[in-house]
What we know:
Helix content is 28%, strand content 32%. It is built from eight helices and 15 strands.
Amino acid sequence: MKPVLCAVIDDEPIAREILEDFIHEDGRLELAGSYKNAKEGLQGIISPPVELLFLDINMPGLTGFQLLRSMPGPPAVIFTTAYREYALEGFDANAIDYLLKPIAIERFLLAVNKAWKLLRPSTSIQSTGTVKETVGDEFFFVKADGGLVKIFYDEILFIEAFREYIKIVTKDKVVITYHTLSGIEEKLPTGKFYRIHRSYIVNIKAITSVEGTTVKIEKHELPLRRQERDAFISFIASGKIISK
């Protein structure tokens, strides 16, 4: 089946690089071009005509919404933005999906699944091989070290906020990736992880002990918010740990 010809229009270099890498890793997509603003992108996506556009909303000069309104026959669109408040307007513009930055690989794949069903309706998603695996519930991928790194949920010890990045500490490695702690928290299995501090999320199974306002995981000692301690102890004591 012919891949979907797509393009990226985003004024943030890091966001463009992440999307470009994700697209190159997905055999269903072919990148026609990547552009830093709407004016440049408009010229690039006309010939050859792209079928799918990863479009930033809030750009200087011409916004993503203005770009779409200026096109007589716009391609299918997946909006990308750092601003959650644009979500409703994005769907009103008949977008396939809305991706909140920083974009995680599993969220990207879910959006592409929707686009593939729409643009290649005769082809089953399962025929792409890698898609079913990457959106499974045992692991996820993050962009790090110039590529994609596979992280198994059960191997995570804890996750630490590190400015605009997060540090994922597992049993055998440390992975630093461009992401927010709140964003990654939404993707973790319910009941298996707990946010003990504004900068830390821990794997419940990995906890060695809790002493005062300190959570010990192997050789690591992590701070537990004092106001969170009672709820955290109650959570553990209530047996809400979900085992596979």
